[in-house]
Amino acid sequence: MATVTIRDVAKRAGVGIGTVSRVLNDSPLVSDETRQRVQQAIEALDYSPSSVARRLSRGRSMAIAVIAPFFVRRSYIERLRGIENVLAASGYDLILYNVETIARRDACLQSLPRGERLDGLLVLSLAPTDSEVNRLLRSDVPTVLVDAFHEALPTITVDDVAGARTAVQHLIDLGHERIAYIGENLDDNPFNFQPMIDRYRGYRDALAAADIPFRPQYHCQGKYGWREAHRMAQSLFALDEPPTAIFAYSDTLAFGVLEAAQHSALSVPSQLSVIGFDDVEIAQYFQLTTVRQPLYESGARGAELLLEQIDSDAGRPVQHVVLPTELVVRRTTAPPAESLL
Amino acid sequence: MATVTIRDVAKRAGVGIGTVSRVLNDSPLVSDETRQRVQQAIEALDYSPSSVARRLSRGRSMAIAVIAPFFVRRSYIERLRGIENVLAASGYDLILYNVETIARRDACLQSLPRGERLDGLLVLSLAPTDSEVNRLLRSDVPTVLVDAFHEALPTITVDDVAGARTAVQHLIDLGHERIAYIGENLDDNPFNFQPMIDRYRGYRDALAAADIPFRPQYHCQGKYGWREAHRMAQSLFALDEPPTAIFAYSDTLAFGVLEAAQHSALSVPSQLSVIGFDDVEIAQYFQLTTVRQPLYESGARGAELLLEQIDSDAGRPVQHVVLPTELVVRRTTAPPAESLL
DNA sequence: AAGTGAATTGAAACCGGTTCCATTATGAAG
DNA sequence: CTTCATAATGGAACCGGTTTCAATTCACTT
Lengths: 341, 341
Description:
The structure is a homodimer. Chain A has 13 helices and twelve strands. Chain A is an alpha/beta fold. In chain A, the strands form three sheets. Chain A has a six-stranded parallel sheet with strand order 2-1-3-4-5-11, sandwiched between helices. The structure holds a DNA duplex.
């Protein structure tokens, strides 16, 4: 099936190609009569314009790339959903770049703003280095960071420090003092995830604010995943003075803790309080107390910010949007068993 | 920053644009000396070719669209992961079209093969109608269906009937006869999901093969989601003769059943056996007996099939790949409590 | 020395749109 | 009856690459 081009349509309608183009773009500079004739020709030939050609001549690609380590965490998918919903309405294509290794991360951040002519770039959860940011700025591709921060770029973040502080404060308010933290290895953060650092900071801050001394043995670090969290929780239970409450870096890790508790016949929340972070969908299923962060919204807002950025091609002041977190109290937290006389 | 074009490079290197193009495409028809000079000019100008222009002149868009109702089921994301991994290595861009309403489904299937010049199309879990398939065939855009079937297009599917049969057979082998099925509303299937029909069929087939009469009250239909499954399970428990085993359409629904059992103080598996379908990640966490289907692989195979299709632009016989399922026995199934004398 | 062929090269033509500019038709104003 | 603005239109130029084709160079035959 030979491709029908705008010239075929023009010939068939007996008009010039410019006129056809005007009809396609709803220009007012076409008489109704001519417009009809062109429309008929278009239908008769089953013509549809080539987006690639249109992109070339317009100098815009009508495509936005989203780069993220999508499949490693459930929460990124929810963010992607927010992005997709906003972009779908905008007419821009969403090109997905998944990043699972640091090598690919670097390759993407290097090559994306170069080879591809993108109209915009959304970087999710990956904190670019200064030199990468410079490259992005020079390349003139509007970029927005979601769940990552850099001074020079517009960002959408969540106040992880405050969220974590709230979580721990909730435990303190219930009367807990022996509060452990289960998270990822802070020294092994190749993707430079900021929340890893911030939530730990919130934990420390809350303890300090309540004059509860930090006990290193209550700080567990390990690889990400509920299996590993299970293991870490068990090592906490084995301590001489085990914690009465555990704050987990994420809901996923909290599930590992819950499982470990069940395994060790510790009843939650009477013998052990557990609190997570994220409020992913199944958290409700488990009745997990957690800190909700607006995942969907962070993506949606990021996409909106990017679209604004693209439209107002002028260099406006970079915005840093910080979304709030919210404590969601369910059934895995309660006052500690022993009264604290 | 004015865009650097191939002509700028040519001028700077003192050669023709054709030569620059040849260097870019690793053509052997360039002398080493010239090649070096061009390379230097490219670096000096920080030039990178416009992919859009390249696409236009080559007549290929180097883009593959993936269309699916991604965010309604966990399992689609896993399939997407398989697709992404294969495509990432291929050099094709992955353009994501999410479909959450039937209106958007129709709009996508109509417009995608038209306006956009795609090199390929992957349709996930959406069964196109005959007229849509005709349109696709006429449009010359290679298309592969994953988790959906149509005679005229290459497909990757799972034998849902057999999988369901295996699941129910497993329950029968354990000695169950009062086996209920919890699934979606069969009469309300706007997206035309084939597995909904097939798994129910497998359930019926297995019962029939074992000469166990089908009891309509054991067939629960409702909206998708564990909450609804919870409700349906409770209505089953309230029957005069409640089932001793429940086969759930998916793991997600099975979780709802497990929760309902816990809620009603029914112990699993001694008083109630539960089996799911999919083997999503958390199924292992719950020790759920289920039927594993190769989600990741189905996406990967689909993408591979599509790439083959694109390369061998000739019309080869359409392939229909059927992937096997596998029974994964964990801890939610056991022989029924009452002995069946 | 003229002829052959391979290697290398420059530039025109092309991909399929958009946009700008020149041209014509039309109607109102002077 | 000009004069001029305005609406409508055709088509060239352009976007930035690839590809084709003709031209040039140079070594090697005969």
